[in-house]
């Protein structure tokens, strides 16, 4: 039918078929970029260029994708764009994209699936953060990376966007399969839950099934969902090992492994669990590995490289490990005056959301009990607190119903709450790196924050090490006399009642082991009268 509409002149027919042949060859080369281009025939080179007025309308209105090829949703966009593998380092978008204040505009990006961009747009983000702009091109090329960036700069969004992009580019056909394709390991339950919540928001318009696996509750629900099949798992090591030991979780098809807060995950306390999990994964050559953390020291990197394939190290602003909006103070105070100083700060200086750190669980529990006795609305986050109570406390803290949270280092890793104005180190941490993680809870998104430490006889010697790590001095203050006067308590809580209310777990009552009243158990039988 095409020939019937053509003129009978053979010269015009020859020019027409030459144009069709050139068009089909160009479409074949664009659909398979790895194929070498075919040399032009001698007959084509002799033909004069076809005038635009002679070009049939059907050529200009032809579909960009061959009709015999079925294209999944989202792939039709990526076929017409340049591959991200050809993008230079630290540049994720195509040529001609907009740059706003040195940051690449997200929505000018032509490499991400439109469903992901739609979710990002609904969340209100418009620019890439430095860690996202530096790491995403490497990840999308299939590189293993170890990214070091300060807390709160978007590390979680970086690897979640990469995971979603990889699944969608593979024409995601694993809906009926139970084996997960991506595994994210986190040191705390709160952090794993936060990662899953972020995945829920980013994958809102994608058919990606995700699950958070952690101990403490919902064992049957998690087990049932694993059996039905998931694509992405965010988990803590303990519960995941339990599921894999019972053959509920099959990790043999994992293609992407992410260790979030990697320095803690690879700490000696977590190392046996991490080894056990990684031994169940495919060989490192068959998967992509990513490490994200605020600090990555050489010892941790040497240990991590055992499981990675020539990782690329991404460092963002190495000269400052914390946000510049955070002010650092340290009060020189004795151990016995710290509680009085804390009460004065909470009354006169501290803002609406205060996070207090202690080094051990029992001392954190004691401090929380004292604060409640002085009328301060606070909650406790430690390993002794039940999971349901921890979640309720975080939600109340986020809504402003609770002003103060007393936490340990491990529990504090899972606190991702905006507008925390003050982080108080009631106990200075034993490692300078832990100081970075603690104060990373404040000063986020350009909001000013304060990091206050109590330099007493127990931890004051850590101040020079912290200053060396920060690269700036910590302002030392000496409290005035009125700041060290302890007020009268508002109420007195019985010890075992306070423990049960803070942790959500029954207490022994603080009376020790009860002696049996049965004769023969330490008592002498009375003779009958």
Structure description:
With 529 residues, this protein is an alpha/beta fold. It contains 20 helices and 16 strands. The chain has a 7-stranded parallel beta sheet, with helices on both faces. A 7-stranded parallel beta sheet has the order 12-13-11-14-15-10-16, with helices on both faces. The protein has a two-stranded antiparallel ribbon with strand order 1-2. Helix 18 (432-439) links the parallel strand 14 and strand 15. The protein is globular, with a radius of gyration of 31 Å. The relative contact order is 0.09. Residues 1-8, 32-103 and 508-523 have low confidence and may be disordered.
Q: In which range does the helix fraction lie?
A: 25-40%
Oligomeric state of the chains? single chain
Mean pLDDT: 75
Spatial strand arrangement across the major sheet: 5-6-4-7-8-3-9
Low-confidence regions: 1-8, 32-103, 508-523
Largest sheet: 7 strands, parallel
By DSSP, the count of extended strands is 16
Report the structural category: alpha/beta
**Total helical segments:** 20
Strand content: 5-15%
What would you report as the Rg, rounded to the nearest angstrom?
31 Å
Distance between the termini: 125 Å
């Amino acid at each position: 039918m095409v020939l019937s509409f053509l003129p009978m002149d053979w010269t015009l027919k020859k020019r027409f078929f030459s144009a069709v042949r050139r068009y089909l060859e160009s479409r074949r080369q664009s659909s398979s970029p790895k194929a070498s281009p075919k040399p032009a025939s001698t007959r084509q080179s002799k033909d004069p260029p076809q005038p635009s007025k002679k070009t049939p309308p059907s050529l200009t209105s032809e579909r960009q994708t061959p009709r015999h090829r079925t294209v999944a949703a989202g792939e039709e966009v990526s076929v017409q764009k340049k591959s991200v593998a050809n993008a230079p380092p630290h540049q994720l978008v195509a040529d001609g994209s907009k740059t706003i204040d040195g940051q690449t505009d997200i929505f000018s990006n032509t490499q991400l699936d439109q469903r992901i961009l739609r979710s990002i747009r609904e969340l209100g983000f418009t620019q890439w953060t430095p860690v996202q702009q530096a790491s995403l091109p490497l990840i999308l090329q299939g590189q293993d990376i170890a990214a070091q960036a300060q807390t709160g700069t978007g590390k979680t969004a970086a690897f979640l966007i990469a995971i979603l992009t990889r699944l969608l580019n593979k024409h995601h056909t694993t809906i009926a399969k139970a084996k997960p394709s991506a595994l994210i390991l986190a040191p705390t339950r709160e952090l794993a839950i936060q990662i899953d919540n972020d995945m829920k928001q980013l994958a809102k318009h994608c058919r990606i099934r995700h699950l958070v696996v952690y101990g403490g509750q919902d064992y049957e629900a998690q087990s049932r969902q694993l059996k039905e099949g998931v694509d992405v798992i965010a988990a803590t090591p303990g519960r995941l090992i339990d599921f894999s030991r019972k053959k509920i979780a099959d990790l043999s098809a994992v293609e992407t492994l992410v260790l979030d807060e990697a320095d803690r995950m690879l700490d000696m306390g977590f190392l046996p669990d991490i080894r056990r999990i990684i031994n169940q994964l495919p060989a490192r050559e068959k998967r992509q590995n990513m490490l994200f953390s605020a600090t990555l020291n050489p010892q941790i990197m040497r240990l991590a490289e055992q499981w990675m394939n020539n990782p690329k190290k991404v460092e963002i602003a190495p000269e400052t490990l914390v946000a510049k909006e955070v002010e650092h103070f340290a009060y020189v105070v004795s151990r016995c005056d710290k509680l009085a100083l804390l009460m004065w700060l909470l009354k006169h200086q501290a803002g609406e959301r205060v996070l207090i750190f202690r080094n051990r669980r029992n001392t954190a529990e004691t401090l929380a009990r004292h604060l409640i006795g002085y009328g301060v609305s606070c909650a406790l986050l430690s390993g002794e607190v039940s999971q349901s109570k921890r979640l309720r406390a975080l939600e109340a803290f986020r809504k402003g119903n609770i002003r103060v949270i007393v936490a340990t280092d491990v529990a504090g890793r899972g606190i991702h709450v905006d507008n925390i104005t003050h982080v108080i180190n009631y106990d200075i941490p034993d490692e300078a790196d832990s100081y970075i993680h603690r104060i990373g809870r404040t000063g986020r998104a350009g909001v000013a924050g304060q990091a206050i430490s109590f330099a007493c006889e127990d931890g004051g010697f850590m101040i020079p090490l912290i200053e060396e790590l920060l690269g700036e001095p910590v302002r030392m203050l000496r409290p005035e006399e009125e700041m060290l006067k302890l007020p009268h308590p508002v109420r007195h809580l019985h010890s075992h009642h306070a423990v049960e209310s803070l942790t959500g777990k029954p207490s022994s009552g603080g009376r020790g082991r009860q002696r049996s009243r049965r004769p023969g158990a330490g008592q002498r039988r009375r003779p009958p009268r």
